[in-house]
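A quick aside before the break. I want you to see a complete sequence-to-structure record at least once, exactly as it would be stored in a machine-readable document. Don't worry about memorizing anything.
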Amino acid sequence: RNRNDMKRFQRLISLTKYIEGFSLPGISPIVTTAQADATSKLQHLSGVQVLAARPECRQQGDSDSYSSVLSTAFFVVAKGLGPAGTPERERKQYGELLDIASQIVERVAADSTSGNCGLLSGMSLAAVEIVPEASIFGGWLGYSVELTFE
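That is the input. The structure line, written in tokens, reads:
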């Protein structure tokens, strides 16, 4: 590969390293690639789990002039309550998971604007989408947190 190609992929490489090393106190996300991979990794786990998707990159333009948009997602999930579920227990469970999702967004936003995180240098957090999930990865519920960087 020529030097321009390496430069072209540097932001994706940096964001991937950031995601692979991301943690919060008590939380080390499971890095995953696709839904089947995530479902397999969660199969024998319980409690609250955080997954981080390996980043994707969409580029437009030629090798001399291009723009790129990078995206990734975190999933903050717990096993569904099943027959033990009451509206109150469900509210409490979603509330706890949303608190963790919020901590993740706050940390990524701070890391991307502080200037102290070299891996996010030159990237700005352009969009955040937090979506409640009812049954993903084979029966887990919680939130997906989609992050887009420009």
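Two observations worth writing down. The CA atoms of residues 36 and 137 lie 8 Å apart. The chain is about 35% helix and 35% strand. We'll return to this after the break.
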